[in-house]
Write a structure and sequence with these properties.
Structural class: mainly alpha
Number of helices: 16
Number of strands: 3
Strand content: 5-15%
CATH topology of one domain: Receptor-associated Protein
CATH superfamily of one domain: Type II secretion system (T2SS), domain F
CATH class of one domain: Mainly Alpha
Largest sheet: 3 strands, antiparallel
Length: 408
């Protein structure tokens, strides 16, 4: 069924817009009138336009881009409807009117239209690779093949909700230190460029050597005051240089390996990657996808090319007949506990439940670690800022104390 993008006026004369599906333009106009609106323009959304919007995001549709949170909510709603006995097309039709984002509404409508034309659900999802990941599409395909689509959708919703919850916890935990760092930087910049130069003018007429802390403060103040633009250029240039460097294969491997070697963040990121890897692998294998294709799919969900390389090497070893747990040992990335639990799961024939347990263990560890870090980080940042302010105050007061001694 064709999908139309319309502009209309409501009963109060206000402009409204949206997406609607109908058999034709005339039927779409009649449907809009039934809703109590007066149609101004009705334009069919072609599949070419829809695909272009999904594949090449640009400034015009920046604010209508589909987020993973929206996909997660939509998946949960679709799982609920199909689990209640709704046919897939009927469920999608219901969700077209309930989807709030205009861009996502178009995508859902085109997916439904593609299914009506005779394509499978998984094939319709492949039209939007920027919205639906290969893992999502492969799990849907497995669910369609096995006749357990509603179960697969529920598991997909569970996975995405857990990932969103973990991401939200990390973002919430990092909001305060980032804000404190930004405020501290602005305060320091203000002190060094405006306050310190005005106060230290009293030292210009002194015919004695200033204390080392004071000379250091004056030099830093001159640097900030006269070359702040150079510091901004260096910061922005370093940021873009790092982005360009990471676009190269060598740069991506080097930076990802360096990230994993960081004292506190490295182990934390490893645990996040392990939790994501095991939960996704468990879902894929539980839904009928064999180990080798599942490893090929899941190697890209870790978010780190070094860990992805370890998974790829393990996949090659599994293809030769070696166990998954033993294959992951050689990489030296996966924690011993995770490897041992995988080996136990393989030996007992309960690999999928064991993978879920591993994911639960490391997700809980990540949350506990983040809470502990944030509890320690707040007083540490306050102490650092207090130390900086104390240094500035002492650097200004030391020459004054020396002047008092000379006068006395």
């Amino acid at each position: 069924m064709p999908v139309f993008d319309y502009q209309a006026l409501d009963a109060k004369g206000k402009s409204v817009s949206g997406i609607i599906d109908a058999d034709g333009a005339q039927a779409a106009r009649q449907k809009i009138r039934t809703m109590g609106n007066f149609p101004v323009s009705v334009k069919e959304v072609t599949s070419i336009e829809s695909n272009k919007e999904s594949r090449t995001p640009h400034f015009q549709n920046l604010f209508s881009r589909v987020t993973q949170a929206q996909v997660s909510l939509w998946t949960r709603q679709l799982a609920t409807l199909t689990g209640a006995g709704f046919p897939l097309v009927t469920a999608l039709t219901t969700l077209v009117s309930q989807t709030k984002t205009q861009g996502f509404t178009k995508i859902v409508a085109r997916i439904k239209d593609s299914i009506v034309e005779g394509n499978s659900f998984a094939s319709a999802l492949t039209l939007y690779p920027s919205v639906f990941s290969p893992i999502y599409i492969n799990m849907v395909r497995a669910g369609e093949t096995s006749g357990t689509l509603e179960i697969v959708l529920q598991r997909l919703a569970d996975i995405m909700e857990k990932q969103q919850e973990l991401k939200s916890r990390i973002q919430t935990a990092m909001a305060y230190p980032i804000l404190m760092t930004a405020v501290g930087t602005l305060v320091l910049f203000f002190l060094m460029t405006f306050v310190v130069p005005n106060i230290t003018t009293i030292f210009e007429d002194m015919n004695q050597t200033l204390p080392t802390p004071t000379r250091f403060l004056l030099g830093a103040s001159d640097l900030f005051n006269n070359y702040w633009w150079l510091l901004v250029i260096l910061f922005i240039g370093s940021f873009f240089a790092l982005k360009i460097f990471r676009k190269t294969e060598r740069g991506l491997v080097t930076t990802d390996r360096w990230i994993l070697s960081l004292p506190i963040a490295g182990p934390l990121l490893k645990k996040i990657a392990v939790a994501r890897f095991t939960r996704t692998l468990g879902s894929l294998t539980e839904n009928g996808i064999t180990m080798l294709p599942a490893l090929e799919i899941v190697k890209n969900v870790t978010g780190n090319v070094v860990i992805s390389g370890v998974v790829e090497n393990a996949s090659n070893e599994v293809e030769k007949g070696q166990g998954l747990g033993q294959s992951l040992v050689a990489g030296g990335i996966f924690p011993d506990l995770a490897v041992q639990m995988i080996q136990v799961g393989e030996q007992s024939g309960e690999l999928e439940p064991m993978l879920y347990k591993i994911a639960d263990v490391y997700e809980n560890e990540v949350q506990s670690s983040i809470m502990s870090m944030m509890a320690m980080l707040e007083p540490v940042m306050i102490l650092i800022m207090a130390a900086v302010v104390l240094f500035i105050v002492l650097s200004i007061c030391l020459p004054i104390f020396e002047m008092n001694q000379l006068v006395g």
